[in-house]
Amino acid sequence: MRLSWRVLLNLSLLALCQAASVEEIQLKNIDILTDSFHKGWKEFCDAPVDEGVMSLYNGINPSDTSIHLLTINNQSVELPIRALSEIRDFDINPQRKTLLYVNGFYTADSYFSVQAHLHMMQARRRDLNVIVVNFAKDIQQLYYALRHHLTLHGYFIAKILSVLVENGVDPEDITLAGHSVGANAAALGASLYTAEYWHSHRKISLIDQLIAIDPASHICDTSDLFVRNNVTSRVVVIHGEGNIFGVREPLGTIDIYPNGVGFYPKRKLQPGCESWTCSHMYPFLLFMEALVEGVSIPSVRCENWMQFKDGLCNYQDIVEIGITYPAAAKGLYFCVTQPHPPFTLHENGFEYRSRNSIFRQ
User: Fold this and answer.
1) Which of 131, 136, 158 shows the shortest CA–CA distance to 147?
2) How confident is the model at residue 355, as a pLDDT?
3) What's this model's pTM, rounded to 2 decimal places?
4) Is the Cβ–Cβ distance between 81 and 66 less than 8 Å?
5) Nearest CA among 127, 168, 117 for reference residue 284
């Protein structure tokens, strides 16, 4: 039976209306996610979005995770996560230290652009094998990672670690690092790798260290944060915000509390920050400044923030934010930094000494 032109026109108009409706719902989804994101992880997990409509759009599946590597000629290459076994074909030298960075946080702000900082790190730190895994290229991908796919992301990290080790990279030369949700995925990946290696070889194989940058304090549908002090040989936690995004309690072998935020309840925001999101991003910027610019950001071992302010610390026990830490370092460490780059006070001639937190040379 042939349909009349009026029926066909009505059907076409209906289709157009439905398409527009889907677009409008998706725009509303993004607005809801963006608004709830700034209120903290719990609100983000419980955001009243239409996941049926979100599923119609690209970029939210675990397979949309990307791997970023460099060629020998310094060309940046992006691979889909399913090509993880191909990382052996790129500029991975077993004689160098390896940094596997897991990006699990998103911001559109150009000053806080996670992607721009990570690209800069890859380009400048050619003394390292730098591999970046990104499952937060936009806010909806981050939502699905936190809401549904975090265990899979941990599995992906474990598989990448296995590929590296199978191709001659010593586990003792591997540093895992991640910020926010990425820190949790990295920690889970390290645990899964160790369990899988034991199952296959009946030997213990621990990754050298995990740098957990203000790990996310809330994961949807589970109370397990995954970051623990035994997932790698050394776990360094760089805290940033302890109210709605990051964790207050010490989780690592080394716990660094810049400016006491995240440790001392009365200190709410990092220098120069006016939001929880900014404070959550702040330790990432410290880590990038130390790693990319080679800036020294020293932290002193102390029992608590008040003793640090009073100068009652062990000034012989100092660590610097980055990827290199003394083997004997353990406990709580504190530092003071500035509200803008360069964040370190060393640039202004400040140093730590006994009985005074800082002094000017």
Assistant:
1) 136
2) 46
3) 0.88
4) yes
5) 117
